Amino acid sequence: MLNVPSVVFLGIDVVKFAVNLGTAYMLFLAVSLTLNLEAGYTGVPNFGKVMFLAGGAAVSASVCGRLAVFILGINVHGDYNGYIVTVINQVNASLSQNSVLCVELILLGTLLAAGVGAIMGFLASYPAIRLREDYLGMLLLASAQFFQIFLGAYAPLIGGTQGISVPNFFGWAGSGIGVRDVAVLGFLTFFAISVFVFVERVARSPLGRTLRAVRDNELASRALGKNDVAIRRNVIVIAAAISAMAGALLTFQVASVGPGTWDRVTWTFWIWVMVIIGGSGNNRGVALGALSFAFLFDMIDQVQFVFQPYLPDFVDVNFLRYILFAALLILILAFRPGGILPEKSSPTLPKRTLHGIMGRENAKGEMDQKEPA
After folding, report:
1. For the chain, how many structural domains are there in total?
2. Whether this model's pTM surpasses 0.85
3. CA geometry: angle at 145 spanning 139 and 146, to 5°?
């Protein structure tokens, strides 16, 4: 049986820590990049990110689970939510022998989540797109909270407040220690890198300049013939679709789904912290901010109880991470409001092309200076 090697340093399994850190980072990176596309480039203060993650994940997990049971011919007596607990081991045993079916269901669930997220983003954009930034943020935040209440109250989808188990679509990776986690990390890495490349290409395209124009001065962009309402709506739709895909992959990773799988602190406010720390309007800054957050978050989780004897009695060590990140956010806003890597103008041409143009211009200028008057 293949196992991931264990390397212990200062009481911490470095390999396991790295895999867990990478998994969290890839999910944070993908979602924070979508927020940067909305808020950093377009000026849409989306405080409802958790709604799109939850919507895409709930639908994809429910549909893919039912589809797996149907394809494998496992009888749930017409009540998937009620019988999945009793047959989940049988489902997982069958799936572990069929890697092709597992990968197909993962891809199907991810694409289904993208469609659901796009629809939710389209619907959310209509009542909210013409609102001012503060009212728009409050409306999206309230919508996210309402949707989580709906998931808990509507049992046929994901079992209501109890939630349901999701088949282990990564069981084909093997039962060795840590092997499944490495397989999940591989999928998430490919997904996060694809999102980064897409968002970076958008930022460097003429569309990226249009998004900044809409963010900075809507009246000026309208005067130039830009439909700012349609642009903001399309950005919300695209960002919602990507966020929903991340939610589906998260659900497939934890192999369960319920209203508590996602919370607005982790998947809304922490995402804002990553964007602010890294640098709004700079994808590389957001990537660095997400990495810094994920690393510090996991490190604090590993060592927080070491500081317990040194903390006052009225300070709960479990809230240490919140205190430290709040202090870090205040320091960033006070001394470096642009983030670690502030926003810079994005060249629309490759650096090699720009250097070639500049070199020709410099050579031409030198020749002009050498010509006699």
Report:
1. 1
2. yes
3. 85
